[in-house]
């Protein structure tokens, strides 16, 4: 069975208007909580630069209870859903 992340809640937790960086904490349907860090590239396009799984639940993919990089494969999908819920800070 393939993993299909679904964001149910997302909040902007920090925003730096000087350099355009901001963070969103997203809660997924399977109770996993992730922190997404956004930045802008040279053209000014908003892009997710990092994703971290907050260690409240084991990883839903590999079931490890410590740091892993499994969520980086789904960074784009989670990012799109989180931006729809939380919006883009102005």
Automatic annotation (TrEMBL):
Protein's name in the database: Uncharacterized protein
